[in-house]
Amino acid sequence: MNKISTKLATSFIISFLIMDTLLMVYLHQTITHARVNEELDRLLKTGSNHRDVLEDNYNETTLHHIILMESGGERDVAILDDAGNVVQHSLDNEEVLLPYLNQLNEELPTKDTILPVDWKESPYLISVHPYTAQGNSGSLVMLQSTIPIRQLVHRLNIHFILAGGGGIVILFVVYLLLSKWLTRPLIRMKEATEQISKGFYDVDLPKLSNDELGELATSIRTLSNDLSRVKRERNEFLASVSHEMGTPLTYLIGYAKVAQRTELDDAERFNYLSIIEEEAERLKTLVKNLMDLAQMDEMTFSVSRSEFSSTGFVRDIVQLVQPAFDMKGISLFTETGDDFTLVADRMRLEQIILNLLDNALHYSESGTTVTVRAFQNKKQAVLQVQDNGCGIPVDNQQEIFEKLYRVEKSRSRSFGGAGLGLAIVKELTEAHGGTIDVQSEPGHGSTFTIRL
Ligand SMILES: Nc1ncnc2c1ncn2[C@@H]1O[C@H](COP(=O)(O)OP(=O)(O)OP(=O)(O)O)[C@@H](O)[C@H]1O
Ligand SMILES: [Mg+2]
């Protein structure tokens, strides 16, 4: 039993059979009880009528008249004297009365009574009506055949069996429809996922329906698109990384060859070796940044938070970068306002601000200013790095946070950037549960804002 439709249909049929059986038993009981009670009511009423007539006028004619009225039908009457002997009756065979007479003789009722009999076992329902009239007394016994009730039960059974059988046929049709409507799309989706797992992301899944199956198909389509995008991005990323590493390596090999020339004097050789060192440093930074990002992607690095003062934090960073800004002739300012407590991974937060300051330094001309701010806004810690540099075109303001993205490849290349700094900043900020955004106008400068 491996088909979902078979499982569903089996559960349906079992539930249906349970419900059907309970309902039918209930209906069966209710209908037969109602019918038995109806017969008993009628028996009591007729019996008491006959008794009234008998008490009014007890004579042979009345007796004969009563017997005549009940002859030949499904009902019968017997009139007993006070000793319990049968005076008259309408039965074909008096014998049938015997078991009831025995029951009556044990205790003769003093008012209209229904004799407690089980209609399933007994051929008759019995009511007893005591009478006294003109010196005579005894009981009038009414008998109602249980055959019509039995016939009713039989008919009911046939109807119920037919209804149950019909229900099962309907369920079978539902099963066939289910296997068509449910299993087919599932099989198509299974085939599609198999295709995806083999690396064919271009799956063909039509819009199936608006239900959960349709949603599943949409998810599979989204998954295949995402996988295909990830594959494309990975290839692009590998190509960019190879390119980024290839360039410094070409320089390294080229300058190493030049440095080996015997005709060079010491100063020239020193110059080439310095270039080699610089390119090797650049490669080292690139590899370190790539490792950082890979770690962040794998979620294998952790943020260990501690509490520290905002002004102290900004002061330490500024001290660290001040010489580089002085060298390029850029004024570095701080606006820290009231001191507050920062709760973050101090080393990672330093890495964030250092990366932003590094960009501010690289993408600003000498004579401009860079400002570092730290303040609180609605219980949020806000850190800002603002520069008056070249700015970033609006179209590129989101892409700069992507790995290996640079606005102008040639421009950044001359500054030595690989396009990884902001990707690292973004990952680190998000690892802190914070956000980063940029406001920038080309030619006027940029402001990067971190909110923690
Ligand atoms: N303050 C800024 N002003 C102008 N452009 C910027 C600024 N910061 C970033 N950019 C642009 O965004 C791009 C991506 O920045 P990111 O820091 O990720 O890389 P990078 O600085 O080029 O290289 P890396 O940081 O890896 O050495 C940069 O190449 C630059 O074009
Ligand atoms: Mg950078």
TrEMBL record:
Protein location: Cell membrane
MF terms (GO), sorted A to Z: kinase activity
Top-rank EC class of the record's enzyme: transferase
Chief location of this protein within or outside the cell: membrane
Descriptive protein name: histidine kinase
Location of the Histidine kinase domain: 240-452
Record key words, sorted: ATP-binding, Cell membrane, Kinase, Membrane, Nucleotide-binding, Phosphoprotein, Transferase, Transmembrane, Transmembrane helix, Two-component regulatory system
Residue ranges of domain HAMP in the record: 180-232
Lineage, highest ranks first: Bacteria, Bacillati, Bacillota, Bacilli, Bacillales
Organism: Sporosarcina aquimarina
Domain of life from the UniProt record: Bacteria
Catalytic function, reaction form: ATP + protein L-histidine = ADP + protein N-phospho-L-histidine
Annotated membrane topology: Multi-pass membrane protein
Enzyme Commission (EC) number: 2.7.13.3
PROSITE patterns given in the database record: HAMP (PS50885), HIS_KIN (PS50109)
Transmembrane segments: 7-27, 158-178
